[in-house]
Each structure stands twice: as C-alpha cells, then as structure tokens.
Amino acid sequence: MGLVYYGYPKCGTCRKAKKWLETNNLDFQEVNIAEAPPSVEELGKMIATSDLELKKFFNVSGTKYRELNLKDKLLTMTDEEKISLLSSDGMLIKRPIVFGDGKVTVGFKEEEFDKVWTN
User: Fold this and answer.
1) Residue 5: which residues within 8 A CB-CB, separation 6 or more?
2) φ and ψ at 75, to 5 degrees?
3) Does the structure show a pLDDT above 70 at 1?
4) pLDDT tens digits, residue range 30-43?
5) Residue 18 to residues 88, 101, 108: CA-CA distances in angstroms?
6) pTM for this entry
7) Are the CB atoms for 94 and 61 separated by under 8 Å?
8) Helix runs in the chain, H state only
9) Model confidence over 60-81: pLDDT tens digits?
C-alpha cells in the first residue's frame, strides 16, 4: 500500500508537509480531508498504528472543535463515538495525516517526517 496524505489545501502546515513529501520524492495519494475525511475504519487503523492517544487526532485549535465545545464533551464520549465524530467532519481532525507502509504521522514536524518517512 502506498502513502496517503490527508491535508487541507488552505492550511499552511499541510502545504509544508506536502512540499516535504514531494521534495523527498515520496509517492503519495493526496486527499482533501475536508471533502473526504478518513472513514471510521481508516481512522481506526491509523490510531492503532500510531503510538498516539486518540485525543491527539483532534484539531483542538480548530473553529469546529471550539464551536462544538468538544473539550468538555470528549471527556464523556467513548472511543467509538470519538472516532465516529472525527470521520464525520475532516475539519475536526488534526492535519496533515500521512498514513501508509505501517506508519502514520499526525501534524507536521520536519524532524519527525525525516525519521518516519525516509527510512
């Protein structure tokens, strides 16, 4: 399976991550996370593959996150409910997400991309 890059074209961090992938000659499929968020199944695989807590997949600085008052609501939700909520709206998901080859990164830090995607 190849790499899948979930990003949002208007997001500066996403553009930096995409440019990094291109500069490092990595083949990837680009998906606009706002138009086609990952499914519940895909998110489940990403979360299981990562060493991250589920809450790290939420875009906590996003407008939607604040509008929905998720900081408080997440405390009482099950993991299944959280994953379902994430898959329902790509703007709730921290981006970019790069997934494939048994690895996943959430957000963009060049050092992390160097370590994860160039080995």
Assistant:
1) 17, 18, 21, 28, 29, 30, 31, 96, 97, 98
2) -60, -30
3) no
4) 999 999 999 999 99
5) 24, 17, 10
6) 0.92
7) no
8) 12-23, 40-49, 63-67, 70-73, 79-88, 110-117
9) 999 999 999 999 999 999 999 9
Residue bearing tokens 């370590």: 115
Q: How many residues are listed for the chain in this entry?
A: 119
Record the tokens describing residue 117, joined without a space: 């995607």
Distance, C-alpha 7 to centroid of its chain: 8
Question: In which band, very low, low, confident or very high, does the pLDDT at 2 lie, cut at 50, 70 and 90?
Answer: confident
Rounded Cα–Cα distance for residues 53 and 110 (Å): 21
Q: Going by C-beta distance under 8 Å and a sequence separation of 6 or more, which residues neighbour residue 109?
A: none
Token reading at 42: 């895909």
**Are the CB atoms for 19 and 55 separated by under 8 Å?**
no
Query: Taking every pair of C-alpha atoms in the chain, what is the biggest distance, in angstroms?
Result: 43
